[in-house]
């Protein structure tokens, strides 16, 4: 029998302030012992209309009704996590580190790997599309969360995936249009890699124009994991009055919500309000039995970026986020 995790609850913004009343600055998170840095952009607290109007071209029913959402502030990655960054966690020096941490043969690499780092993949997970400077792909939501834990262990700084609301708020960057640059999809090529201009592959991060808040590739390149369970009528459930920091805890393995559209999607999928549910089909080419907890071989269009709340959660909340209870896989 296999198991998967479930986040039963998450207090997204609690604990003590880590900054003064002035707006926090953008910064780069350095990874100790490496030359890698990850740029973080300060996203101010505020409110916005989540979802899309009924008149928006390409709109799906799960994007409505529009409703007002208020959010606390956070930092968000200026771009998607790259292979350069992800490989530090997934592969490099794995055996050396595990041998140092677990010298007892009974606590071997094989026994610790399942709960600490991804198992070695059975194919090149970039599928030949490029590695240095390109977005990491094919990881499960579970693997993305465990990456955040690894980064916390390395830096002492709490990072996590964004909620759907945080993601859309940051993607819109104060705009009310279908895209962060307006409503005309003819201009999408200036800001995104998508089906019409990607030549069938993802591209180097940050090569298109950023949105008004300085975030690159929120439209296109690769879709991005969020924390939320995908619930088609979730907005209808939340559209009564003002909503503060909404979040749909994961209680089932599928579907969870990804955002942003990818190099393999039409323009409509890259809209700020567009929602995409994850699917078991994303593991259809996985030769392992049982299926991998870490890799989704048929999801070469899915990656992630990080957020850090302005207010640091308590130690108990951090532990609950990184080590949630398990639920049965199917």
TrEMBL record:
SUPFAM superfamilies: C-type lectin-like. Residues 39-280 form the Sulfatase-modifying factor enzyme-like domain. One of its GO terms (molecular function) is formylglycine-generating oxidase activity. Coiled coil: none annotated. This is SUMF1/EgtB/PvdO family nonheme iron enzyme. The lineage of its organism: Bacteria, Pseudomonadati, Bacteroidota, Cytophagia, Cytophagales.
């Amino acid at each position: 029998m296999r198991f998967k995790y479930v986040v039963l609850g998450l207090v997204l913004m609690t604990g003590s302030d880590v900054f003064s009343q002035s707006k926090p600055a953008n910064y780069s998170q350095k990874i100790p012992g490496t030359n890698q840095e990850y740029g973080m952009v300060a996203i101010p607290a505020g409110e916005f209309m989540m979802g899309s109007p009924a008149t928006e071209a390409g709109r799906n029913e799960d994007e409505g009704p529009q409703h007002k959402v208020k959010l606390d502030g956070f930092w968000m990655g200026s771009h998607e996590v790259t292979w350069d960054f992800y490989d530090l966690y997934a592969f490099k020096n794995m055996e050396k580190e595990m041998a140092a941490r677990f010298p007892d043969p009974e606590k071997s690499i094989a026994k610790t790997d399942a709960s600490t780092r991804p198992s070695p993949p059975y194919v090149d997970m970039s599928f030949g599309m490029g590695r240095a400077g390109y977005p990491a792909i094919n990881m499960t939501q579970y693997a993305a969360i465990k990456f955040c834990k690894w980064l916390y262990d390395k830096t002492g700084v709490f990072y996590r995936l964004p909620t759907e609301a945080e993601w859309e708020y940051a993607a819109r960057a104060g705009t009310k249009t279908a895209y962060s640059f307006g409503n005309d999809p003819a201009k999408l090529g200036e800001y995104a890699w998508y089906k019409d201009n990607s030549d069938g592959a993802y591209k180097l991060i940050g090569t298109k124009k950023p949105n008004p808040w300085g975030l690159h590739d929120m439209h296109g390149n690769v879709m991005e994991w969020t924390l939320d369970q995908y619930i088609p009528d979730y907005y209808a459930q939340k559209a009564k009055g003002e909503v503060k920091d909404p979040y749909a805890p994961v209680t089932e393995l599928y579907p969870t919500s990804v955002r942003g559209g990818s190099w393999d999607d039409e323009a409509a999928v890259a809209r700020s309000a567009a929602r995409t549910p994850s699917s078991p089909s994303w593991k259809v080419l996985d030769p392992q039995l049982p299926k991998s907890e870490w890799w989704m071989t048929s999801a070469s269009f899915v990656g992630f970026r990080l957020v850090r709340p302005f207010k640091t959660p308590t130690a108990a909340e951090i532990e609950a986020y990184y080590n949630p209870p398990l639920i049965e896989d199917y």
